[in-house]
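Page 37, top half.
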Amino acid sequence: MKEHGSLTIHPVRLGGLPLLHGVAQKLGLMNLLERYVPTDPRDKIPVSQTLYVILCNVLLERFPLYKIEEWAAQRELIANDLISSLNDDRVGRALDRLFRTDRASLLTSVVLKAIEQYNLQCDRVHNDSTSVTLFGQYNIDHKAAKPNRGHNKDHRPDLKQLLFSLSVCGDGAVPVYFKVWDGNVTDDKTHLRNWMALRGLLGRADFTYVADAKLCTRENMEFIHSEGGYFITVLPETRKEDKTFKDWIQTNTPLWQEVGRRKGLRQQNPDSLWWAFESPFLSAEGFRILWIKSSGKERLDEEKRRSRIDKTVETLIELQGRSHKSRDRLKSDLGDIFRENQSERYFHWLITRTVEKSYRQAHRGRPRPDSPYRKIEKVIYTFSWSHNQETIRYEARSDGLFPLITNKKDLAREILSIYKYQPCLEKRHEQLKSVYHVAPVFLKHPERIEALLFLYFLALLMTALIERTVRKAMKEKGIESLPIYPEQRECRRPTANKILDLFRDVRKQTILRKGNPLEVIPDDLNDIQRQVLALFQMNTSDFFLARPG
């Protein structure tokens, strides 16, 4: 607040808030929060408003829930006379109330509204999970998902975690369902419950469910098939069908059919190609297996194998130059080398025992013709090695291959195209961790953590809708890129984070006289900001007047 005589200037930092308000209004988010998380008459600030402030804070701040009172005051999200009540205790109690409410029904209402308002196509759904790493000790006597040690995808086995399972539709990778699981739950145990929840939410069973290799169990696939659903997943290398086909191609040549091509990113880079071949062998459950051959994966597989072999050879040569007196120690060193490089199958090796004999005078002094000598035997262990050509040739025949298992009857080109959308889901997990900083979580109660993760799901939903709206409008208007990168470099596929960041410094100033507003003076928007607003179907005046939905 700046004073100039009898006038005062009250600046408000808007940033990307008006864009969030626009999405929230289309979803009717505030009304839904008020319906499912009712406010207690004793609340100074409606709990729905507190939850919305937390949601916006998650979306726009690099350190969510940190100094939230000061942050909200700068953006006029809470009335000035109530801002002091937005303390840590109120935030915590709001999350408690959210946890105790019917979050499943709230999620369904929000997602159905998004499908209706944005005309989302949900004929296919992609699912994957990621770990949310937690720091500290947690009470496990509660109804929330339990933090436990598990297979941590952040490579932190020393810490506890929760499993964040996310499902997105194939139309803009917009999140449509999520669930928080105990930290030690494996993915194969989550798919049936996820699929049944999606069937109830979408009101249909004939959608295509796409997931990683953990979906490939008899129970999962046969259940989805028997219920009239479709699935696409990867056949794990541990299945017998994988070895059967790889043995078959050693003496047979598949008739590969080109099903995809993508130009190299640079002129000197080769094009990426994909081929498909319908396996002559069905899965044990009777489902079709499509083998895909990728030129990029073929090069990568060859390079990885060559690198492992070359690193192993270098270390073996170094080890050969040493003297080895213990067979067990030498065997252990060889095992460490092969284990570190994952290369034992590429080598034959043999340890040999050699006895070196030498003679030494039994007594001191100058030797005489009759001086006695004693024999000294020294045991030395050496090893020899050679390449396992048979295994190397066997694996080389499988370079670039991966199998897809499905109950769909579509062409191989369509099956591959659907599966290749999976990285768009993985991008949502990357945003959850790297952009919205889900960890560390500054909460110690698992109930509040689970409620906060619900808000993170809403955050991913809203940002996905912003991305989809702008990208769809760009396509319709024939706009190939927007200069929103630093130094006005072009961006062909703008993310919500870049779009919101474009408005980071936008403000409006209210001139007051004795506390009464006289005039509101907004910042001037530049050309690219106006262009993005037009793509978002929002004019400048609506931007500065937008309020929470």
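Page 37, bottom half:
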Amino acid sequence: MGFAWLASAQLDAQTSTQSPSISADESVRARADALLSQMTVAEKIGQMSQQFDLGNSTDLQERVRSGAIGSLLFVTDPKIINAYQHTAVEQSRLHIPLIFGFDVIHGFHTIFPVPIGMAASWDPSLVQAAQATAALEARAVGIDWAFAPMVDIARDPRWGRIIEGAGEDPYLGSAIARAQVRGFQGDYIGAPDHVLATVKHFAGYGAAEGGRDYDASYISEAQLRNVYFPPFRAAVEAGVGSVMSAYMDLNDVPATGNRWLLTDVLRNEWKFNGFVVSDADAVKNLEVHGFASSASDAAVRAVQAGVNMEMSLGPTAFYTNLPDAVKENRVTETELDNAVRPILEMKIRLGLFEHPYVDESRAATILASEDHRVQARIAAEHSAVLLRNEGILPLDSKHPPKKIAVIGPLADSKADTLGSWTFAENLEETVTPLEGLKKRLGSISEIKYAPGVQIERRFPSPFEMFSHTAKVKAWTDQESAYEFDHAIQLARDSDVAILFLGESALMSGEAASTSTIALPGKQEELLEAVVGTGKPVILVLLNGRPLNITWASTHIPAILEAWFPGTRGGAAIADLLFGSANPGGRLPFTWPRDVGQVPIYYAHNLTHAPLDQGKRYWNEESTPLYPFGYGLSYSKFTYTNLQLDKAEIKEGEPIGISVDVQNTSETAGDDVVQLYIHQQSGRSSRPVRELKGFSRITLLPHEKKTVHFALDKNDLMYWSSEERAWVQDDSVFDVWAGTDSTAAALHGNFTVTR
């Protein structure tokens, strides 16, 4: 253990005179303060500096030794992690361990469906378990800290990072945020086999103008507090240990230099006691924004706004500029101590002083776990959303089609089965859809494959150095014509054609915004040509955002949204198509007909001529192609007996609501029971519908269950622009229970009075 025990013992000795009744929080703070009292200004600033390991290990080792770095990221080799940690713990003056961070977004070695897909499960317990597995795998190699969850509300599918969040709704987003924090961190920070979580990007990043990544967001305070803040607050209340600041301007003040966000709201209102880390180079970019006058000014303003640690590709602006800023009293030592203390407290809570090293022999066993792969397959099954089914699905598993044409550029691409934000996976063990179908059917069916068309393989600059996606040689015109015709001929010769279309992995994610949601390349042409053969067609989508499938929605009998389904995605898709798994996912966003409808979301306010809401364009319906919360099943469900336990409540009182749900089919399946409300009048106009409860339930054939919900004052309050405060109005509230945001069959209401 080297000198780590000595550093810990010194701290324990200095706090041993405290009362035996001292709380854990007080003890941690005392240990951090004792260490702070021994630190030089340079060592404090070093703790505030995080740097990528880009291979210059000699230079980094020296900087670690001198105390110039408090954290490293993108190191995944246990031997290298232990080597750096040895330098920090055994050779630096105060023996302060490093904290190692990594983008553990939807799995580490075992890759789960992308986050928007996991949100489509509407199953927080599933999400929590998946992130617990990701934490276990990451911790096994020495990673202490995950840069997830991303909880940005996104209502513009052009924005590439919609793939990383939970969609458009603050209630669903908050539930998924809590689940991810608990999955990563366990019951407490420092729980064995768990890691520190980072909720990001605070705040409003998902509202970037035009869906253009990094562009400014202009959001009213009412929208911030009612829509964009709730998932962040839920994560803070769940105990998240770190928060990442966002890149963009928020109402003309960059988020990384925004004191109102990072101090007034996050710390003073919400009582967050962890630390804030900037997004990569976001501190330096305060100068690029035209906000800071220099790199030194950027460093000072970020610290004073509330940033504790700066993430940077190279030496940080903090380490380069803050020493002089402290000498010149532009940053006080008290401000410096307040910035460093939460970092030290989290290192103490994680147990890094007592256990700084990772057991190198353990990693291989944990990463090889077949149980994790099974968990990933189940997650992919639960995340899939059946968008359309005119009786073709499920395919007969006892008497499957004799000849199956598998068509599309995503059918046999391992990287595109995983999706973006994967850096430590074993690509070879990934099961593609084609492989999943072949393994399931064996020699029972003749499966022939043709890609038909190519999709551009994008390499957005932030990830080019990390991406495992292989660059593919572009086809010549002659090859393109041959492959297209070959795919059509396979369809003609088949009993059924299964098309796998969508986006390539890096078309969604950071720096992957788009001006169109059309199927990329010539996929639409391929789709229509295959349908033109007259053979039964099933469309399976692999993607991270809604795409324009308006033509397909009326011409193809079955459409399955599979997202980028992860390590065992191909096996899950095969099970879904043949009925071994029953689709139960629901959309976490409103699916537009065309990009011209964007932004479109269900929780809009009523406006002039409310009876004509569906005709806001003269040339097209303004209703979505598929509503928020929508999804089909191989089972059939009916809803009856909506009950409210009171017709009238006083402000602040709770109300109970129940509904009976029955599976009226012969097939067991999952339904997601959704509860929506609408406040009829008040100090502000309120959305036409707001999700206020949901429950994913499993029902056997003909089984009936009563699902209970409880609304409390927090569910009925909102931030009023007029009052600039949280308010609850005397009003009548409509209540609906059903399968999506358009549910109308079961309707009741109650009244709130003073």
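Margin note: The CA atoms of residues 87 and 133 lie 29 Å apart.
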